[in-house]
Amino acid sequence: MLPSRSLLIGVIVTLASSHIALAENVQFRNARENEIRQLLKGASDLQRAPNGYEYRKGNPNGYKISNGQICVLFPNKQTDCITIKTDGKVLQMIDNLGNRIRL
After folding, report:
1. Are 100 and 83 in contact (CB under 8 A)?
2. Are 21 and 13 in contact (CB under 8 A)?
3. Distance between terminal CA atoms of the chain?
4. What is the pTM assigned to this prediction?
């Protein structure tokens, strides 16, 4: 005998809820500066400037990497920062809108 459709939907909802609950229990913290630098290609090529930002030769954008954050200083003096979180295994980038992107 096949289970009823409502029973299957209930099982799927229960499993999905359990998965969401497990995902919410993961403790993310601000990624340390060295964890972020390990992820970034070419981070060793950056040169620190007097304004506290680091620049790559030939690139007008400045970068400030700190615990939990990467900020970009554009030539027009505007800045944009993203948050970097980790659970110790996975790094996530969180933009100003709250969108999370696994790195």
Report:
1. no
2. no
3. 46
4. 0.69
Residue 98 identity: G
The encoded tokens of residue 51 equal: 């304004």
Count helices and strands (H / E) in the chain: 2, 8
pLDDT per residue as tens digits for the range 59-102? 999 999 999 999 999 999 999 999 999 998 889 999 888 888 89
Q: How many CB atoms lie within 10 A of CB 70?
A: 20
The residue with tokens 């799927």 is 12
Distance (Å, rounded) from C-alpha 72 to C-alpha 60?
A: 10
Around Cβ 33, how many Cβ atoms within 10 Å?
15
